[in-house]
């Protein structure tokens, strides 16, 4: 199966590098996880760069920094039914497809779970923009030479 186009709202499987991992000197994420493409741009040379937000089961210490994914959406994406959040204050940026895009577990040759519903994606972006205005986001730039 070919790689998907990196469209906003698409949930991909990715070896996410958390801020604390990068600050400890790690260069690769420890765990593959669902991540939401928040931004996708293409430069004049055709190079695509994406910004992703990770999905985690760990409840946020500060509710403002994450958005819970409703069970109905988790079911639609084929994710487990444990509570999960999109973390909006810790992001990765990389050239598409990068070295850390991973196949979805149990989904032969697929790299994505599907799209967030537009209303949920809009809420995530609005919350992220608020965090950016307050200078409460950190971005790890990865896989770019």
Describe it:
InterPro entries: PemK-like, Plasmid_toxin/cell-grow_inhib. Helices cover 19% and strands 34% of the residues. By secondary structure, it is α+β, with helices and mostly antiparallel strands. The protein has one domain (10-142). Strands 1, 2, 3, 4, 5, 6, 7 and 8 form an eight-stranded mixed beta sheet that branches. A hairpin with a 5-residue loop joins β2 and β3 (48-56). The radius of gyration is 14 Å and the shape is globular. The model has no long low-confidence stretch (mean pLDDT 95).
Strand content: 25-35%
Residue-averaged pLDDT: 95
- Calculate Rg over CA atoms: 14 Å
Query: Which H/E pattern describes the elements?
Result: EHEEEHEEEHE
Number of strands: 8
Q: N-to-C terminal Cα separation, in Å?
A: 27 Å
| Count of alpha/pi helices | 3
Globally, the shape reads: globular
Structural class: alpha+beta
Q: Main sheet?
A: 8 strands, mixed
Number of domains: 1
**Low-confidence parts lasting 5 or more residues at pLDDT below 50?**
none
The helical percent reads 10-25%
GO molecular function: DNA binding
Pfam family, one: PemK_toxin
Protein name: Growth inhibitor PemK
InterPro entries: PemK-like (IPR003477), Plasmid_toxin/cell-grow_inhib (IPR011067)
Briefly characterize the structure.
By secondary structure, the protein is α+β, with helices and mostly antiparallel strands. It has three helices and eight strands.
């Amino acid at each position: 199966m070919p790689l998907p186009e990196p469209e906003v709202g698409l949930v991909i499987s990715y070896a996410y590098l958390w801020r604390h991992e990068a600050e400890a000197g790690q260069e690769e994420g420890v765990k593959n996880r669902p991540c939401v493409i928040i931004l996708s741009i293409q430069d004049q040379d055709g190079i695509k760069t994406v910004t992703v937000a990770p999905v985690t089961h760990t409840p946020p210490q500060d509710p403002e920094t994450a958005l819970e994914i409703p069970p109905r959406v988790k079911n639609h994406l084929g994710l487990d039914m444990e509570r999960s959040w999109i973390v909006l204050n810790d992001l990765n940026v990389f050239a598409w497809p990068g070295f850390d895009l991973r196949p979805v577990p149990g989904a032969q040759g697929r790299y994505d779970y599907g799209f967030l519903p537009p209303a949920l994606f809009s809420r995530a972006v609005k919350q992220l923009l608020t965090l950016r205005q307050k200078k409460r986001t950190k971005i790890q730039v990865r896989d770019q030479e």
